[in-house]
Amino acid sequence: MRPRETSTLERPARRVTSHDVARAAGVSRAAVSRTFTPDASVSEKTREKVHQAARDLGYRVNYLARGLTNKRSDFVGLVAAGLDNPFRTQQLEHLARALIARNYRPILLPTSKEADSATVIGQLLHYAVSGVIVTSDAPPSHICEECAAEGVPIVLINKGEDYPFVDRVVCDDRNSGYLAADHLVQAGATRLAVVAGTAISSSSRRRAEAFRARCAASGIDAALVPVAQNDYRCGREVVPTLLDLGIDGIFSVNDYMACGILDGLSDAGRRDGSVRVIGHDDIPQAAWGAYDLTTFLQPCDIQAEQVIDLLTTRISDPEAVARVEFTPTTFINRRSA
After folding, report:
1. Cα(first)–Cα(last) distance of the chain, in Å?
2. Degrees (nearest 5) of the Cα angle 318, 322, 328?
3. What is the reported pLDDT for 8?
4. How far is CA 164 from CA 142, 161, 167, 169, in A?
5. Which of 98, 175, 234, 307 lies at a 20 to 30 A Cα distance from 299?
6. Does residue 61 form part of some domain?
7. What CATH number does residue 52 fall under?
8. Do 235 and 321 share a structural domain?
């Protein structure tokens, strides 16, 4: 009979638990729990002993297990679409950093125009998340109601719809639209247009409406030139239409599309200053020498703090009246306009 072969692989070591840390530190398990709970009361001496024991043993807090015990985890869902847009990635980075600074753990769920945001948010509810932040299309009312019933706050960014118990942070789009119109008129433009996918974005719709209203107040009939998406490709492809209309002043509702418009103007030999272009968001590429884009800064850091403040307040007071915070914008004047 052949001798039984033995494996050279060793069984993985047992996971270190809070009991092990408590025993090594000479404290109670409750003291270990308080040490790793933000803002919990524990003496500095106990905290040092627990942290030292945790380092020695290689202990890590199991946040999923804690969420099951507390009926609510420290996770916050970030629902986002359009990740090809540099502004969206910038926005998500600031949101994630702000959440981590407040002792929450972000979970990113990418979605798209084809995806149902209700399905994505429904998936998050299985993780007992503490809240949901939506930067993509606003979810339907029934999913907002379901989250409210489960005590899960939702904060919407740059959405126009009102929902009970759902808070919103909205960029000051109307002011941007007004100032864009004023600047183009003062710069000498006489045939103005706004390029926007108003059917797919409430912020685009607000900016376009404000721009055209301000132009009308100045006696100018500004054209609305629609696009399927507010992205680089559509910006580049819409340039022949703009030139056929004789447009000499363009407000693009975001920088991503404005960069496409500027490249389209270069293709047509019209980057000679005869067509002025203004964007929105102040993405990093806007300051590149190839674009030098006049735009509006939408401060992601301020916006992220507004979002987290609303989220934490809603966690403390689920029955509070829905609130709206406005994020200010700043005009950045560069060579393109």
Report:
1. 88
2. 125
3. 46
4. 11, 10, 8, 15
5. 234
6. no
7. 1.10.260
8. no
